[in-house]
């Protein structure tokens, strides 16, 4: 057997950044006053996963989805083999193949539902405009977010447990290979094209840049409250005086202009 280059620098950096980010995001979730930082790290995780999906279709040996083994029979044999004779895989084994796809799906679902919760219940971020009585008192979105997040962590726990068992029982070099990128076998080494290298740089650099940008600009559209409070009594006195005398003030931006024109025409006709 020869020393084979299996995991590219970009795959390994993604793995390291993801491990750190996931650990941090779950710790931050326990502190209400650090919720904005929780959201920032969550956005970073989302971007890491989005780039990983593209990476999986870029014909990168051992990392592309075509090389994943989703055969259920092979998965069962591999799982039982953890405690006996285990077949070696140069790239992703059946268990890690399923785990990675599950983590991508559950991770992105956690990010998306997190954005929804952050907007509807906290009035912050991209969906801050949904922080209205219809949504902000609902527990549904938060429950769904927690469901996906806990499932995400469950898959991670199983994945890590499998790696530990493999290390203890079979002296596996899986952890070491994710550090230096090498395994021993008889297959071909990974070679990246120029396009793949450029994309890898973009992948890691963009993720780090997003994290730094969001941390250094707390008023950005992804994290801050984007709905400016309007004092209608001061800024739109005529509107305030005419409307609030009869009913609860209804912000004009909540209806399209055509609806207001129609209502005002009806009001004029009625008079």
UniProtKB/TrEMBL annotation:
SUPFAM superfamilies per the UniProt record, alphabetical: Transmembrane di-heme cytochromes (SSF81342)
UniProt key word Cell membrane: yes
Protein's UniProt name: Cytochrome b/b6 domain-containing protein
Organism per entry: Candidatus Sulfurimonas baltica
PANTHER family, per database record: BLL0597 PROTEIN (PTHR30485:SF2), NI/FE-HYDROGENASE 1 B-TYPE CYTOCHROME SUBUNIT (PTHR30485)
Entry keyword set: Cell membrane, Membrane, Transmembrane, Transmembrane helix
Topology of this chain in the membrane: Multi-pass membrane protein
Domain Cytochrome b561 bacterial/Ni-hydrogenase: 6-181
An example Gene Ontology CC term for this record: plasma membrane
Gene3D superfamilies listed in its UniProt record: Transmembrane di-heme cytochromes, Chain C (1.20.950.20)
Annotated GO MF terms: electron transfer activity; heme binding
Transmembrane stretches, start-end: 12-29, 35-55, 95-118, 147-165, 198-216
Record keyword Cell membrane present: yes
Localization, UniProt: Cell membrane
Biological processes annotated in GO: respiratory electron transport chain
């Amino acid at each position: 057997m020869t020393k084979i280059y299996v995991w590219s620098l970009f795959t390994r950096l993604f793995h390291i950044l993801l491990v750190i980010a996931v650990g941090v995001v779950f710790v931050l979730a326990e502190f209400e006053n650090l919720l904005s930082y929780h959201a920032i790290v969550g956005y970073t995780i989302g971007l890491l996963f989005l780039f990983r999906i593209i990476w999986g279709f870029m014909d990168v040996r051992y990392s592309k989805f075509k090389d994943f083994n989703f055969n259920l029979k092979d998965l069962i044999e591999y799982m039982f083999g953890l405690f006996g004779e285990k077949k070696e895989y140069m790239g992703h084994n059946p268990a890690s193949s399923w785990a990675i796809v599950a983590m991508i799906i559950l991770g992105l679902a956690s990010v998306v539902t997190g954005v929804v919760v952050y907007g509807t219940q906290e009035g912050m971020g991209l969906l801050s405009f949904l922080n209205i009585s219809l949504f902000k008192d609902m527990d549904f979105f938060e429950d769904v977010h927690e469901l996906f997040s806990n499932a995400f962590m469950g898959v991670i726990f199983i994945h890590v447990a499998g790696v530990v068992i493999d290390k203890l029982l079979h002296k596996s070099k899986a952890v070491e290979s994710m550090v230096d990128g090498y395994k021993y076998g008889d297959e071909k080494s990974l070679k990246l094209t120029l396009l793949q290298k450029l994309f890898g740089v973009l992948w890691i650099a963009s993720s780090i840049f997003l994290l730094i940008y969001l941390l250094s600009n707390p008023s950005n559209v992804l994290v801050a409250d984007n709905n400016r409070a309007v004092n209608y009594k001061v800024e739109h006195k005529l509107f305030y005086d005419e409307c609030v005398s009869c009913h609860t003030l209804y912000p004009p931006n909540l209806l399209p202009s055509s609806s207001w024109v129609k209502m005002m025409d009806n009001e004029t006709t009625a008079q």
